[in-house]
Protein 1
Amino acid sequence: MARPTPHHPLFERLFRHCVAVDLGTANTLIYTDGGGIVLNQPSVVCFQKEPASGPKRIAAVGTEARQLLGRTPRNLEAVRPMRHGVIADFSAAEHMIRQFVDMARPRSLLTRRAAFTVCVPDGATQVERRAIREAAGAAGAWRVSLIGESLASALGAGLPVCDATGSMVVDIGGGTTEVGVIALGGTVYSGSVRVGGDNFDAAIVSYVRNLYGVLLGEQTAEHVKKRIGSAVHDVPLEQMNATGRSVDDGLPRTVQLSNRDIAEAIEGPLRQVIGAVKRGLELAPAELVTDIAHNGIVLTGGGALLGNLGRRLTDEIGLDVHVAEEPLTCAVRGAGVAAAAGLLGEAGYE
Ligand SMILES: Nc1ncnc2c1ncn2[C@@H]1O[C@H](COP(=O)(O)OP(=O)(O)OP(=O)(O)O)[C@@H](O)[C@H]1O
Ligand SMILES: [Mg+2]
């Protein structure tokens, strides 16, 4: 499917440059081999509600739309079209991709009729894959190839994916954690849990509500997580203030939170992430696990930036854990590298 179409040799020459897209739950990135990362925006689109009939009008997209999440006036609706790495709202996803491609165009070689390579979670179903294909097609892509997120992330992290030696990459995104074992250019094992950074934010909201009776917004919770979040409990104390609404009287209230509070708050979802890594080590072929024991594990995705996550994983599984350079952009850069290197049609692609 991803091979050059023999009927369109001219198209193939015109559009030989590669466009990679990481349509993530939290962020969408577009990469071209000529321009590098030409777009990096939150996966949010904001629609005008009126008039009720007729085509939907977009009020904002990306960073601007994200600022409106949870604070939209009545005539606007902010939507996150992706959930757990797959499309939850098809029409919103299509509008969002189209807008992003338009935004990226002036900065790149990208034309809307380009061939796209899009990252998908390894665990996505056929229906979910078809939806991603169709949304990219409807947004104007001339041809759409899919690449598994683990393989893309491993390539972007600079792992020796084509070697016989096995590598393990753990991509912790907003909505999913993908554990992949890669060897000989393909994904030998992949496992995913529908848990990611969004679940850490939700866990912080519910912890603060239960303990202090204060309801934080999700973006406030995310801010706290990024500033003082910790995956281990025994850390030197760090504190910060966060303001939310008292559940008693509905008035604004500020609470002081510590890194130890956050470690306790996120323990549940964090255990699920750790469980997925342990499962990967149990289920991957023994020879490759020996390689992984030797080389360690690489973390990618925004969740890899959670404070002390490497240390916690090392404590739990006894292996070295490294955070990739620029973990937030690994998947899209890897997809771009794979497309440019002509890995199309190889294992991991479809
Ligand atoms: N410094 C940080 N500390 C902790 N978490 C962080 C940090 N920076 C970003 N994150 C989290 O990373 C997540 C976004 O990561 P990423 O962009 O890789 O996800 P995504 O690719 O959009 O999602 P998915 O792969 O699940 O579809 C968010 O939940 C965000 O809160
Ligand atoms: Mg991702």
Protein 2
Amino acid sequence: MLASAIAAERGAGVLLLERNSVLGKKLRITGKGRCNLTNSSPVSDVLDNITTGGRFLQSAFHGFPPYETMAFFEQLGVPLKTERGSRVFPQSDNANDIAEALRRYMEKTGVELMRGRARKLTVANGGISGVISSGTEINCKSVILATGGISYPATGSSGDGHKMACELGHSVTPLRPSLVPLAAEPLVTAPLPVTVRPSRGMPPRSRVAPSETLMVAPLSASGLKLSTA
Ligand SMILES: Cc1cc2nc3c(=O)[nH]c(=O)nc-3n(C[C@H](O)[C@H](O)[C@H](O)COP(=O)(O)OP(=O)(O)OC[C@H]3O[C@@H](n4cnc5c(N)ncnc54)[C@H](O)[C@@H]3O)c2cc1C
């Protein structure tokens, strides 16, 4: 959504092809429905807390740092607030406000929206020539493939983009979850919340601040930043 609006703002004729009837279905459930939009720490701190792939993300974070992300969304009419751990949320605690701001931005910049599932990218003379959706080809010279990861496929991101990229000869590394639920056996019955002392039994490269708290519920554990797990 953001890429389409920025490309349109810069003068490109843009058509966004979305398989769902609702835009930003995953975005609307992020941060338990509140959308943890960014982290207001300096870029160097943010990068220090990314244990794998931080180098890859360096140019993106320097090009569009957290304070600019915050200013950008506030300009789009979404007031923000910063909570514990420098986490940034919309003041409304409603992730829909972020998705709607992006939708309005797309509308304002003239992005055309089409409902459909992209199946294949076509190539002519060594460049992109179109996208096949529902049996018809949409002609274009460039494509931004932004089909998401493969978590929560019910939100629409089920790996089509990886498949299309592979078909064009790109290599795709094996896909793995980065955030996973933890199951305890036997179930933890201690009073809540449980405070974890990072020095005991944590993986050697873990960066868990001494003040961090592990919240244990009957079927879940949350709140603890196990950044190298
Ligand atoms: C439960 C949950 C909570 C999260 N909470 C946070 C959080 O608080 N903060 C945070 O920063 N990140 C959070 N994330 C991660 C965040 O949601 C993703 O990083 C983000 O949505 C990725 O955006 P994207 O545009 O790349 O992909 P997506 O949001 O997945 O969007 C891809 C879009 O492409 C569409 N699409 C896919 N294939 C096709 C096709 N073939 N044809 C047409 N359309 C297609 C999909 O329908 C979808 O709308 C959370 C993720 C989950 C699952």
